[in-house]
Amino acid sequence: MLLRAVSVCALVLLVSSGGSAMDRSELAAVLKTIPPNGPFAKFGNVTMRTRAKQAGMAPVVFPHWAHRKNYTCRVCHLELNFGMKRGDTGITRALYTKGKFCGVCHNGTVAFGVQNADRQCHRCHMENTKELDKRFEEFAEGLPMASFGNGIDWAAAYRDGSIRPTNSINTEITIPFPEKLKKPLKLGTASPRSDVSFSHEEHFAELDCSSCHPDIFNIKVKSTAAFTMDTNIYGNFCGACHMLVAFPMNDCKRCHKGMNSNFSM
């Protein structure tokens, strides 16, 4: 359904595209979490094991859904300086207990604290996610449904007011959305599927220009020559988010709206 054979040429493009591609084992792990292979509650959860294991603690499980309902992506990935790609941030306990990264909100006032003795370690360091999964099921009830990802149509929930995430915690002045970008961008395809209609406006509602440019998409002319379905699936370009957090790329018709229903990837 999702994975196709990747040629040697495609792998060369992955390296030269400037992205941080997954290898095959990483992709296989991702595919196991994407419905229908995995449950809705686990899609988008980030498990951080390395430093927790070194400290003799259970791994940290970060649920994007629990934060996304309250804050847009730009709050954490712009104002709090969390990298968009795994491993970019270099977060440590010493940093968040000093009020950096997670510690900005997890201060005992906005959210449960991480700085003092009553820091409730188990809220992040989880032996299992049973309680977290139950919280997700309760949260998802009544929200617009989707067939992939979390089983939630987040864009619809944002539009109809089911969720009202805060777009800034620093009351920073952000640039207005450029008028010339309001018209959807039409992207042709070389495969037997429909063209893609990309909306800058829908992405700008929760992100910032710097979220994608230039690290994920270089805006120079012809800088996306390596932009293919293969490179996306392996975590480059759109796949940086749409394989791990945003609706996964086996939800073909979310982008290829006129695609023949008999065609599958």
Describe this structure in words.
With 265 residues, the protein is mainly alpha-helical. The chain has 12 helices and 4 strands. The strands form 2 sheets. Strands 1-2 form a two-stranded antiparallel sheet. β3 and β4 form a beta hairpin.
Compact overview of the structure:
By secondary structure, this protein is mainly alpha-helical. It contains 12 helices and 4 strands, in the order ααβαβαααααββαααα. The strands form 2 sheets. The chain has a two-stranded antiparallel sheet. Strands 3-4 form a two-stranded antiparallel ribbon.
Topology:
Elements: H1 8-16, H2 24-33, E1 45-48, H3 50-54, E2 60-63, H4 64-68, H5 73-79, H6 93-96, H7 130-140, H8 154-160, E3 185-187, E4 196-198, H9 200-204, H10 209-212, H11 229-233, H12 239-242
Antiparallel strand pairs: 1-2, 3-4
Number of beta-strand segments: 4
Which percent bin holds the helix content?
25-40%
Distance separating the two termini: 5 Å
The largest sheet, given as strand count, sense and whether it forms a barrel, is:
2 strands, antiparallel
Q: Within the largest sheet, what's the order of strands?
A: 1-2
Q: Which stretches are poorly predicted, pLDDT < 50 over at least 5 residues?
A: 1-19
Arithmetic mean pLDDT = 83
What is the string of SSEs from the N terminus onward? HHEHEHHHHHEEHHHH
Structural class: mainly alpha
- Percentage of residues in DSSP E strands: 5-15%
Spatial shape: globular
- Structure annotation, total helices: 12
In terms of quaternary structure, the protein is single chain
Radius of gyration: 19 Å
